């Protein structure tokens, strides 16, 4: 694969949640990410789809959720899943985050060192395993910190990595190499990860560039607190088709391109069962809302706009956290 058809890294990660208001409150107010799109699951329009990202919704920064409601069963992380999603935070900011987690009652673990970086593991209200990783943020970094709730010197700056749990990592590692990732290190796994060795692969981009692979025989089940799929950047249609052909040549079954309104997507399950998406970088979250108003209204893409009254009637009312409201409640 040539340099111009490699994925630069992660585009977004989509997860399953329960209560939509709880999900909004945690990811916007507690973690300080911006709600850049409030929409519906285009495959199940009775459910919200929330997109949390940096201030501009740049590729490599958006964590998205299907909040399926309180009736959603608890998931269990296991093989064939993204077991951990990690975000970058500026060097020296983990003291701030531990204090904030104490103030907000967030469940977190002791810091660990991984590949020379300091990692703070925690869980969201649905039990989703998440991590913050201290990194040096360069002056020309392509992310834009959102600072309504968290100061710039601590704000989350897009993805650092995802960790895949796999029964047999070798076929997936081969696929990652063909997608443009390079193996950059192996070390003993720490914490509650079940594998003996963690292998890290790096894409050529600067945000969301790492995929870690761990062997496990731990069984899992989809539900709240688990990742639904991980999407990788394929900036153009040509990039996407090139990697789609790679997936087909590996004996996998990628879909045809699907228009997701803010990007165009291809989906397939990789060899170990993890659902991969290939997502273009455009049109972008600001293609249907002004940048200053991202997330301000319920956006119903394409054919769904004509069903707005019916769709809105079936959705739970939610309130978007605002800093001035939070200050008034203190």
Short synopsis of the structure:
The protein has 330 residues and is α+β, with helices and mostly antiparallel strands. It contains six helices and 17 strands. It has a single domain (3-329), classed as 2,3-Dihydroxybiphenyl 1,2-Dioxygenase, domain 1, CATH 3.10.180.10.
Task: Report what the structure shows.
The protein is of the alpha+beta class and 330 residues long. The chain has a single domain (3-329), classed as 2,3-Dihydroxybiphenyl 1,2-Dioxygenase, domain 1, CATH 3.10.180. It contains 6 helices and 17 strands. The protein has helices spanning 20-30, 94-104, 169-178, 237-249, 308-313, 323-329; strands at residues 10-17, 34-41, 44-53, 62-67, 81-90, 107-108, 112-114, 117-123, 129-135, 159-166, 182-188, 197-202, 210-215, 227-233, 258-259, 264-269, 275-279. Strands 5, 6, 7, 8, 9, 10, 11, 12 and 13 form a 9-stranded mixed beta sheet that branches. Strands 2-3-4-1-14-17-16-15 form an 8-stranded mixed beta sheet. Strand 2 and strand 3 form a beta hairpin. The longest helix has 13 residues, at 237-249. It is globular. The N and C termini lie far apart (55 Å).
């Amino acid at each position: 694969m040539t340099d111009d058809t490699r994925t630069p890294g992660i585009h977004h990660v989509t997860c399953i949640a329960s209560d939509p208001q709880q999900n909004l409150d945690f990811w916007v107010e507690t973690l300080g990410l911006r709600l850049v799109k409030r929409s519906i699951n285009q495959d199940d329009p009775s459910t919200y789809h929330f997109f949390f990202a940096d201030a501009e919704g740049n590729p490599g920064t958006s964590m998205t959720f299907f909040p399926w409601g309180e009736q959603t069963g608890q998931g269990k992380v296991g093989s064939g899943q993204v077991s951990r999603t990690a975000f970058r935070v500026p060097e020296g900011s983990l003291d701030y985050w531990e204090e904030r987690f104490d103030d907000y009652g967030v469940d977190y673990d002791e810091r660990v060192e991984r590949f020379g970086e300091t990692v703070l593991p925690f869980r969201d209200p649905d039990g989703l395993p998440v991590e913050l990783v201290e990194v040096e943020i360069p002056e020309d970094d392509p992310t834009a910190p959102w600072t309504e709730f968290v100061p710039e010197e601590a704000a989350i700056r897009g993805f650092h990595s995802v960790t895949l749990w796999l029964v047999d990592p070798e076929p997936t590692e081969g696929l990652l190499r063909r997608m443009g990732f390079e193996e950059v290190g192996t070390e003993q796994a720490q914490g509650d990860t079940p594998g003996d060795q963690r292998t890290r692969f790096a894409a050529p981009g600067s945000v969301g560039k790492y995929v870690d692979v761990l062997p496990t025989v731990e069984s899992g089940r989809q539900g709240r607190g688990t990742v639904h799929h991980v999407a990788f950047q394929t900036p153009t249609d040509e990039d996407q088709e090139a990697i789609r052909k790679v997936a087909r040549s590996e004996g996998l079954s990628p879909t045809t391109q699907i228009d997701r309104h803010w990007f165009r997507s291809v989906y397939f399950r990789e060899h170990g069962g993890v659902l991969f998406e290939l997502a273009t970088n455009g049109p972008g979250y600001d293609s249907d809302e002004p940048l200053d108003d991202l997330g301000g209204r319920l956006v119903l893409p394409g054919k769904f706009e004509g069903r707005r009254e019916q769709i809105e009637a079936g959705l739970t009312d939610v309130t978007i956290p605002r800093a001035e409201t939070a200050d008034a409640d203190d």
